[in-house]
Every structure is written in C-alpha cells, then in structure tokens.
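Your task:
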Amino acid sequence: MGLDDPHCCSRRSGDRSIAKVLAQVNWILGACNPSMAHHAIEMEPRVGAMLPCNVILREVDGGVEVSAIDPAASMQAIENPALHDVAGQVRDLLAEAVAAI
C-alpha cells in the first residue's frame, strides 16, 4: 500500500504534512516484543502508549538509515526503577538487531 492508495492516509489539507513525512519513510516496521511489552504493562498499566514498537528504515544517500526510539530514554518520564530495567533490556535487544543489519 503506497501513498497513492486511498486507504493509506487521508488527503484532507490538514494531513498533507503527515503525507509529506510518510513520503520520506521507506518502511515502518513493527518491532514490539510481546513478552517484554506485557511485562512492562504489568508494572505500569499506562505505559502502552510509550512502548518503542516501531523501527523506521529510510533511504539516504549511500544507504539506508535505521531509526528507533531509545526505550530507556523514553521511560525516564515514568518513576519506576523496575520499568527502567526492562527498558534497558529492550534497548539492548534493539541495538543487537540494528547491529545485525
């Protein structure tokens, strides 16, 4: 499904900036680890919206850029040391995956 697909995204004028950003992104990959996500949500039920479940692949001059949110940094907003430990584990898993590319 591409940006020219009517089901991809809205074409209302307010959404043009979103479409422009999406045109620059080649792939958005789901990278959620369900067991780690479940563990984090058990510790902090409202954390679901902050889970780092996307990895962005974008074509750049000379190759492909891989981007992801640092889970440890994003979880600093929540005062829960156990959650910070899980976020550190997820960061390590993401770093391993990116290094393997």
Remarks:
- Confidence is low (pLDDT under 50) at residues 1-14.
- Residues 26-99 form a domain with the TATA-Binding Protein fold (CATH 3.30.310.70).
- The first helix runs from residue 16 to 24.
- The CA atoms of residues 15 and 82 lie 39 Å apart.
